[in-house]
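Board notes (copied after class):
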Amino acid sequence: MKKMIFALVVLLFAAPVWATTVTIWCEQVGDTNQVEIWYETGGTLPRAFGLDITVSDANILACEPAIVGESTAAAKGYGIFPGTINIDGTGNVTHYGSPVAPQSELPSDTRAGLGTSQITVEIGSLYIGEGDAPDPCGLLCTLAVRTDCEVTIAANVSRAGVGVIMEDPDEIPSVVFRPCYVSSFFCCFYPGMVDCCGQTTTAAHYQVYRSLGSPSCWCDPCHCRGDSNSDCQINAVDVLALRSAWPGFGGSYDPCVDSNYDGVINAVDVLNLRAAWPGFGGPGCTGCPPCP
């Protein structure tokens, strides 16, 4: 019996310590396309996170950290980005970079990045005194997504094993990941959105959008330039669609050619299409992510 107890004690001291549960989850911000990524620890603090974030049927357009730089009493959190931080020869940080790891960076399981459905996030903390330490619960970063989707979070194993590295590197936490859903209530069109043409949508535009049944084409990147069939091109197909919807030719309203979101087809839509027409020196859909 004594030998058995001794063997058990040795095993306990040799095994990793599973002490803390860290929960990582996401939340939609009101009726917008913003998605917040949160953490909460039930014990000691995490030092860093290595996460893969995936959205279904959508693109991740942006990822903004809650803070940038060291954690302080005035701005607590995780603002160190190991994958893209720039440090000069004297040890000074010249640029903190971005929480999104570039796809070109090793290891090989780095996700494709912004403008796609998957990103890898590397984010850590640095602070001096205990009063500057991150809180046990807080915001890591905020995403902007393009359309309705489910957001899932998982560990990037190569960077962080279970997804979280604790301040005590010998401690292996139990990590719980919780997905969230970007509601179809607002879809991807909302007041204050700035489209590819630089138009800022208003509450009146949003009311028209909802009254039309939330047409998905209004969320397409090149819609404001007259791209009626969402193929990221401005061509004869779009001209014919506009003609078919033109009231003067007996056409019926088509929201997919209503490029300025006002609920009518008129000269403004013609001018938007003409301004984008490559044959007149227009840009086509170039420069409208994720269009080429």
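Comment from the instructor: The chain has five helices and twelve strands. The domain at 8-182 is CATH 2.60.40 (Immunoglobulin-like).
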